[in-house]
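Appendix C: a fully annotated inverse folding record. The material below is reproduced so that readers can follow the format used throughout the book. The structure is listed first as tokens, followed by the designed sequence.
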């Protein structure tokens, strides 16, 4: 397995529209396909309240956006759950055998992806899918993993606290609703973060050297 950094530019996306107007980076904590051609993303924005309000309003006005749900982040700024009608990047990731660990927008209009590759050839397949949809892809870095696949910092923090609170005990000592209130996100959003993190841990376990 390898950790890969890709520089990605998605054609005609809401991300490009926002980056053309603002220099504030958008951090993608999670993203996945939604429906036949859309995507669902959990984003984090750190800026002044006034600028955040403007960015959110512009996101809502974009033609590809179906729904935006925003809440304050415990670390400052805001967390947002965004559902889009069209997301070629999310759709390409689906079934690609690669796992997205983090993504952050750049001032030049690109988004930097960090991935953990799956089986041999999975990276080439993903890049091929992305380029066929019109994405511009540049491989910035490839590192062979010798340790466990890295979780995003937020995934690690949430899973760690969930473990300490007894979420993984039998019987459970806390609920998904209680944890969601603690992190000030919806139960469905928290469940997605946990599931993505757990999948990385399980994937690494079953791909460990014999």
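Designed amino acids, in order:
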């Amino acid at each position: 397995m390898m950790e890969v950094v890709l520089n990605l530019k998605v054609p005609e996306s809401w991300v490009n529209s926002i980056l053309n107007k603002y220099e504030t980076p958008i951090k993608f904590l999670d993203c996945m396909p939604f429906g036949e051609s859309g995507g669902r993303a959990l984003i984090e924005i750190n800026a002044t309240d006034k600028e955040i309000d403007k960015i959110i309003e512009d996101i809502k006005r974009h033609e590809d956006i179906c729904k935006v749900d925003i809440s304050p982040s415990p670390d400052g700024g805001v967390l947002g759950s965004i559902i889009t009608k069209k997301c070629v990047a999310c759709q390409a990731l689906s079934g690609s055998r690669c796992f997205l660990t983090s993504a952050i927008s750049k001032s030049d209009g690109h988004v930097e992806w960090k991935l953990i590759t799956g089986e041999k050839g999975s990276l080439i397949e993903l890049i091929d899918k992305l380029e066929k949809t019109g994405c511009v892809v540049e491989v910035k870095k490839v590192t062979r993993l010798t340790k466990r696949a890295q979780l995003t910092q937020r995934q690690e923090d949430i899973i760690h606290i969930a473990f300490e609170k007894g979420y993984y005990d039998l019987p459970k000592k806390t609920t998904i609703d209680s944890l969601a209130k603690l992190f000030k996100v919806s139960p469905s959003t928290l469940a997605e973060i946990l599931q993505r993190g757990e999948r990385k841990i399980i994937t690494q376990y079953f791909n460990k050297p014999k």
